[in-house]
Each structure stands twice: as C-alpha cells, then as structure tokens.
Amino acid sequence: VQRIKTATSHLEILQIQEGADDGVLARAWKRILLTLHPDKLQSCTPQEREAAAEALHLVHKAKEEFRETSQASGAVDVPQQLLAAGKPVCTQCQPGQRRYECSWLIPDVVDKARPIEKYEVYGPRVFSHT
Q1: In sequence order, which residues have a C-beta less than 8 Å from that of residue 117 and are 6 or more positions away?
Q2: Secondary structure of 66-110 in HEC code, one letter for each residue
Q3: Tens of pLDDT, residue by residue, the chain (130 residues)
Q4: Which CATH number is 54's domain given?
Q5: What domain range includes position 45?
Q6: Is residue 30, in this structure, part of any structural domain at all?
Q7: Is residue 115 in a domain?
C-alpha cells in the first residue's frame, strides 16, 4: 500500500515497463487487485482497509492512464481504412427500418494480424440530409 501511495507514475504503480502490452497490464492489474481486494483484508484494521481502498483507487487510475497513453502513442492497432466499392444500396425501404448495404474493396495484401471481418453497422434512427 505504501509503495503504491508513494509511486510517481502509473508504470511505477503497476510495476510494468514502458511499452508493455495489454496482456502485461492485465496481469499486473489483476495481481494487485487480488492483493488489495476488500475480502482479503477482513483481518486488517479499519485504517488499513481504508488505506488499501485508496491504493486500489490509485491502481484503477493508473490502469486508465496506461490505456490513454498507449492509445495516444499509437501503440494500439488501428484497423486498415478500406475504400468503398460504390454507393450504399437501400435493401429495406420501410420508414424507421431502412437498411443499407455497403461494400468495400478488399486490398490485394491483407495483414493477418488485422483481418477484415464482416460487420453489420447500426446507425442512428434519424439521419440528417443537410
């Protein structure tokens, strides 16, 4: 608890290295979470439980900071932008239930780490045509 309270960065709180992936983050977070879980602290004094709760709050904040910085740094894989194969086609024209089918050009080279999937996209109930 003292180590977490005196830590100066989210990496120090979670005890992970700069550039760690989501798996490392999840394991570190879970390890600390299991240690500071309120059910594990039943034999502690109320002051110790309160300090552990504050430390647990700092751990949750550190996890969010890690995710925000990894997204901002570009460490998160962003899906490849596809090009539309044509205009969307209306497949269901009833008011309130309109459905459009969009098709995309499949690239010649596909990254196996980021496969192209089939998606069904639901838009808002009302579209603005301005």
Answers
A1: none
A2: HHHHHHHCCCCCCCCCCEECCCCEEEECCCCCCEEECCEECCCCC
A3: 889 989 888 889 988 888 787 788 889 989 998 998 888 888 999 999 999 999 999 999 998 888 777 765 655 555 667 788 888 888 888 887 888 888 888 778 777 766 666 555 555 555 544 4
A4: 1.10.287
A5: 2-72
A6: yes
A7: no
Residue 112 lies in a domain: no
Q: Cα–Cα distances in Å, from 40 out to 33, 49, 51?
A: 10, 10, 14
- CA–CA gap between residue 72 and residue 74 (Å, rounded): 5
* Inside any domain, residue 22: yes
Distance of CA 85 to the CA centre of its chain: 30
Q: How many domains does the chain have?
A: 1
Which run of H or E residues covers position 10? Answer: helix 10-14
pTM check: above 0.85: no
